[in-house]
Specification:
Layout (H helix, E strand, L loop, with lengths): L1 E3 L2 E2 L14 E7 L8 E7 L2 H10 L10 H14 L2 E7 L1 H7 L1 H15 L6 E5 L3 E3 L5 E5 L7 H22 L7 H4 L5 H10 L16
Parallel strand pairs: 2-8, 3-6, 6-8
Antiparallel strand pairs: 1-7, 3-4, 4-5
Helix pairs in contact: 2-5, 3-4
Length: 211
């Protein structure tokens, strides 16, 4: 593998870099959680659809959208994108390779799962670890608030991960994953203090302050 730090700071949400190129936006969700996977998505938008989303002003970094709007956009993106994929890297693998490498791995797997092979990748963040068989890429700081394809990937990554955490919450209701999605809220930490960790918790993370 070869690691680079090719960083571009974009100024506005735009639909593409080169209109006639298959560009896939990539983003992840769940890096800061105590439990559950890190989830990544890769999305290739049709240029007209990307322009439509930008013109409407409905697309943004998923963290800036309401849950209702994220879910509405998820349906629309999955129906109208040229290709999309979502991949999870589970907590045991996060513990083995660390969260940064797990985030890279999730994005690489999402790209490789796409039904179309992209010609270029737009990566959210300031770093990415590539490998043989992946196309050229650039990293964009806060790219999920700057590029339509990355924002779309942000929406899919978050909504799919939130959905998974709600399912896991049914068998582990005391941890509140249906509302906190595994993030280190006060209630989540208190549940860990009382009941310990589950098989879904990241053992390499500091689960409680001071430990």
């Amino acid at each position: 593998m070869e690691e680079h730090s090719k960083v571009v700071v974009a100024m506005n949400l735009i639909p593409w870099i080169e209109i006639n190129r298959l560009e896939a936006g990539c983003d992840e969700a769940g890096r800061g959680c105590l439990a559950g996977p890190v989830t990544a998505s890769a999305v290739i938008l049709d240029p007209e659809f990307a322009q439509e989303l930008c013109d409407e002003g409905v697309l943004n970094d998923s963290k800036q959208l309401s849950e209702k709007n994220r879910n509405l956009l998820r349906v629309r993106i999955e129906l109208e994108a040229k290709a999309w994929a979502v991949c999870h890297v589970e907590s045991d693998e996060i513990d083995r390779i660390n969260i940064l490498q797990a985030s890279f791995a999730a994005m690489r797997r999402a790209v490789k799962t796409l039904k179309l092979s992209p010609e270029f990748l737009l990566i959210d963040g300031n770093r990415f670890r590539t490998e043989e068989g992946l196309p050229e890429y650039e990293c964009f700081i806060k790219g999920d608030a700057r590029f339509a394809s990355i924002a779309a990937a942000s929406v899919l990554a978050k909504t799919h991960r939130d959905e998974l955490m709600r399912k896991l919450a049914k068998s582990h209701p005391t941890y509140g994953w249906h509302t906190n999605a595994g993030y280190p809220t006060r209630a989540h930490r208190e549940a860990i203090r009382v009941g310990g960790v589950t098989e879904y918790h990241r053992k390499s993370f500091r689960q409680l302050p001071g430990l």
